[in-house]
Amino acid sequence: MVETAIIRKIPVFSMLNEETLEQIASIVAERLYKKNMIIFFEGEPGEAVYFVIKGKVKIYKTNADGKEQIIHIMQSGDVFAESVLFTGLAYPASAEVIEDSTIGVLRCDDLENLIKKNGNLAVAIINFMGRRLQFVSGQIKNLGLRDAMGRVVDVIINMAERGRETPSGIRVEFRIPRQEFASMAGTTRETATRALSALQREGSILLDKDILYIKDMEKLKRWLD
């Protein structure tokens, strides 16, 4: 059984009492995935909800031409595939591990039964899904209304939520391949690279190998006006 300390690190579950955490832990299966392994494909039956214990997972859709659009990169503490809860729907996107990862698996039947019995858990899930809906709505607006620079900036600002303040600015791990970063912004690798270079020249960001520093958040946000 997964330890309750691990469950508590998942933001959606962090405020629940120990008894509820133990109930959740009792229905979690822990799975190890190697880099590039597929967790599920878009269109497969939605049988479980997942969360990242360790590692990174790419959530993406593929169009008719085989072009990949990355929706999000999930990291430690992130929950994904929650949209299949209580719906019986298929997975709306695919999930691929992009580095060796440990993933928690909650079968829908087990989690749904627990939610029905536990009001606090039900409220936590509803709040989480509401926040996720707001995030997805923002992504749709970003892809539909903003130019390439605006989309690149929006991705950087979202990444900054996981960053930390340092004397050099907000420090963000930037180990994602440039092609995948470009896909998240809905543009080409060349365009994304030019946008990053322009942001460096204006002093908004600083790229240092696999680390990105946000030097001037207000200047960055002006690209979204």
TrEMBL record:
GO CC terms in record: cytosol
Domain of life: Bacteria
InterPro entries, sorted: cNMP-bd_dom, cNMP-bd_dom_sf, Env_Response_Regulators, HTH_CRP, RmlC-like_jellyroll, WH-like_DNA-bd_sf, WH_DNA-bd_sf
Keyword Transcription regulation: yes
SMART domains found in the cross-reference section: cNMP, HTH_CRP
Pfam family, one: cNMP_binding
Name of the protein in question: Crp/Fnr family transcriptional regulator
Species: Calorimonas adulescens
